[in-house]
Design brief:
Layout lengths: L14 H22 L7 E5 L2 E5 L18 E9 L7 E10 L3 H15 L2 E7 L3 E7 L4 E10 L2 E10 L3
Antiparallel strand pairs: 1-2, 2-3, 3-4, 4-8, 5-6, 6-7, 7-8
């Protein structure tokens, strides 16, 4: 049986190139976060025990169905209160967002969502400036939706509360 030696090829490093790339890497590490966070809507996250507050959240709270937030919405604020049972069990949550849909378009959007997902409308109150709708799912999720008319479209507030045990 023959024994072969492991051979390692050593290559000389051009120090000028090495310093240039290391300086470039350090510069990029310091400058890129500045450019990435230069937008007005930087996410702010606050937690206290079972309560989580977010300004300009990246996504909606897990307890709210994704269909309830139309694509292209600008998420402004969210709150989640977890239950004593565990991290994934949410007791209450709130989401505030704006959308380019007008108030009437948003009402039609939610009416079609309720029909498709078989949610029961418990209460509905419609005025010129504000619409308030309370719906319940088959697994006892209760969501209240408040739609307000704005100049640029509509502002929507979603309130979620788990009822029952």
């Amino acid at each position: 049986m023959s024994v072969s030696e492991d051979r390692v090829q050593v290559k000389k490093v051009n120090l000028q190139r090495f310093y240039f790339f290391s300086i470039l890497l350090v510069f990029y590490a310091f400058v890129s976060p500045t450019f990435a966070n230069s937008s007005e809507s930087k996410t702010e996250l606050y937690r206290y025990n079972k309560l989580t507050l977010q300004n300009h959240p990246v996504r909606q709270p897990r307890s709210l169905p994704g269909e309830f937030i139309p694509e292209g919405s600008d998420l402004i604020h969210s709150t989640e209160l977890k239950s004593e049972r565990g991290y994934f069990d949410t007791r209450e949550s709130f989401l505030l967002f704006t959308h380019s849909f007008k108030k009437k378009q948003m009402e039609v959007y939610y009416a079609s969502i309720f029909q498709a997902l078989v949610w029961k409308v418990l209460q509905e109150e419609i005025t010129d400036q504000k619409t308030l709708i309370m719906v319940e799912s088959s697994n006892k999720k209760v969501i209240t939706i408040q739609i307000e008319a704005t100049d640029a479209g509509s502002r929507v507030k979603l309130f979620y509360k788990k009822s029952g045990s």
